[in-house]
Amino acid sequence: MKYVLTIIVASICLSASAQTAKKIYKHSASAVTTATVDSAYIYYNLGWDFFKLDSMGPARYYWEKAAYSYFGKTASRQAALYRLGLMQQNAEGVDTNLNMALDYYKKAATSVGGKMGNADAIKNIAAYYESGIVYEKSNSKALEWYLKAKQAGNQFVDDDIKRVKEKMSQK
Length: 171
Description:
Structural class: mainly alpha
Radius of gyration: 26 Å
Oligomer: single chain
Strand content: under 5%
CATH architecture: Alpha Horseshoe
Distance between the termini: 104 Å
CATH superfamily: Tetratricopeptide repeat domain
C-alpha cells in the first residue's frame, strides 16, 4: 500500500510540474517571437578572428558557414562572400583563382529585398572591368559598376569614377 501511495503522489507531482512547465514555456515563447539569431554574423566574426591570427583555413571555414547560413542577415552573408572573394583573388590560404573570386563578388553584390549588395564587392567588379581581368576591358561597364558602388555606400570610389570618365573622354 505504501508503494502505491508513493506512486500516486509522484504522478501528481509530475503532472503539476508538467503543467507549470507548459505555462512557463508558453510565456517565454511568446516573449521571444521577434528575436532572431544572426548566425552569419557570428560565423563572420569568428572567421575574422582567425584571419587576424593569420590562420586562413579556419577563417575560410567560418566565412563559408556565414556565407551560406540560413539564419543570417543578408549583410553578414554578403560580407562573408566578399571576404571569400578576396581570399581567392589574393591567394590567402588558397591558390589564386580570379574567376572564382569574381563569382564570390557577384554573389556579394547581388541586391536582396531592395537593399544594395556589398559595396566593396561592387567596386571590385568595376575594377575587373576597368583592368580587363576576367571580363573584356570596358570603361563604360567599369563606370556603371563604380556608380553602383557609390550608390551602395562605398565612399572611396570618387577617384575611380573620375579616372574612368577621363579615360572615356580621351577616346
